[in-house]
Amino acid sequence: MKSSAPGKIILFGEHAVVYGRPALAVPVTQVQADVDISDSSRAGIWIDAPAIRLHAELNTLPSDHPIAAVIHNFLFLLRVAPFPNLEIKISSTIPVASGLGSGAAVTVALTRALAAHLGRPMNDEEVNAFAYEIEKLYHGTPSGIDNTVVTYARPVYFIKGQLMETFKVGQPFTIVIADTGIPAPTKESVSDVRRLWMNHRAPWESVFDKIGEISFTARRAIEAGKYELLGELMNENHTLLQKLTISSPELDYLVEAARSAGALGAKLSGGGRGGNMIALVEPELAEVVADSLEEAGAKNTLIAQVS
Ligand code: PMV
Predict the structure, then answer these.
(1) What is the pLDDT of residues 162-212, one digit of tens each?
(2) Which of 13, 36, 275, 287 lies 20 to 30 Å (CA to CA) from residue 89?
């Protein structure tokens, strides 16, 4: 049984989303995680994930291994007994630890493939709830936006614990995603922001409010196809993320490079301090902006159409 799930990128609202403000994220379908499950003639559950050089039987993995955790939790939750003999092949083109949701995509694709193969179908809501539990094991206090956008594979307007709406893109738009090459320490940056907020809530609440308003306005701009406005909103959001201390010299440099090369706007995306930045571009400028980002030190760039 085969299943796949796309990458994702946060367009607006990272960090503020942890504090109940809205955020926007979209799937990145150019990259994806694939899982293929078949019955095995040998005993055990064999996992083959060449990209991370993993070839092992489930019970030889530490129980906190992310892939083992998905399988153990799934079998436990659905009371699958005795354990089936399986071959599980996992591959992914989503760069790891850069804010493209590789972990969530593997979790979602693996969950769906297990559900289908074992004849225990799960709907999107159930897959999403399960994937969120797994995210919590690895990311401290995640908002749940990653697993949500990856599960539904649609643009998502998200308020933690309250609202999840998919929405329509007025006119397709193009973003360039550039990787600093520095792993994004999301758990650390989330807890650093929490420390700031705990010490002095009022000023940070007001930063979160401003970011939330940007997400709200950005959704309207995307629905109406107002992309100049969307670019400005990206720039404003980046400034607020700098205030939250989660940008870095490398991210700021790439953001500046994208703007100088003609992007309509640019910001860091995701946990920050490393990982990715995104730039909104006119389609005909996408290559030029991507080249400038590589010249400015980006380790990898991706041009994504959002529709
Ligand atoms: O680094 P990413 O793309 O997985 O995003 C992290 C987003 C945060 O808002 C910082 C944390 C969260 O759980 O939403």
Answers:
(1) 999 999 999 999 999 999 999 888 889 999 999 999 999 999 999 999 999
(2) 275
Nearest ligand 1 atom to alpha carbon 14: 9
Q: Residue 14 Cα, ligand 1 centroid: separation in angstroms?
A: 6
146 belongs to the catalytic site: yes
From 48, 146, 192, 209, active-site residue: 146
**What was the pLDDT predicted at 45?**
97
Pocket residues for ligand 1 (CB within 6 Å)? 10, 14-15, 17-18, 99, 142-143, 145-146, 184, 186, 190, 270-271, 275
If we measure between CA atoms, which residue out of 139, 145, 174 comes closest to residue 8?
145
